[in-house]
Write a structure and sequence with these properties.
Blueprint lengths: L7 H15 L4 H8 L4 H12 L7 E5 L12 E2 L2 H11 L3 E5 L1 H8 L4
Antiparallel strand pairs: 1-2, 1-3
Helix pairs in contact: 1-2
């Protein structure tokens, strides 16, 4: 039997799904919302969080599915950055703070 190995990014996505399900969002809808995240940029930011280079990690799930992710990275590293997106870009999104949860998982706190 092989081993299943998951990256910290995969754990982050699972945490996001768990947060969405707290709002009674179905798994198929969670999948559609997760698809709106720039996963490559998300993984890069998770790596920075793991290395201790950033303190916060907030996923921003845009309300629109057709948003150009080059102009809206779907991940913020501070609440100030999140407010800037909301004010300056006038983009509606659902924020989920997962930085603290991921740091706890990295420490072995489940």
């Amino acid at each position: 039997m092989g081993q299943n190995r998951y990256s910290i990014g995969h754990i982050g996505l699972a945490l996001i799904i768990g947060e969405l399900q707290k709002y009674e969002i179905s798994l198929p809808t969670c999948k559609k919302l997760i698809d709106r995240i720039d996963i490559e940029f998300f993984d890069d930011q998770v790596d920075l969080l793991q290395a201790g280079k950033i303190k916060e990690l907030i996923v921003l799930i845009p309300s629109r599915h057709d948003l150009d992710l080059e102009d809206f990275p779907t991940v913020a590293t501070s609440w100030d950055e999140l407010v800037k997106f909301a004010q300056d870009e006038a983009i509606n999104f659902f924020p989920i703070e997962i930085g603290e949860m991921l740091r706890e998982k990295l420490k072995g706190n489940w």
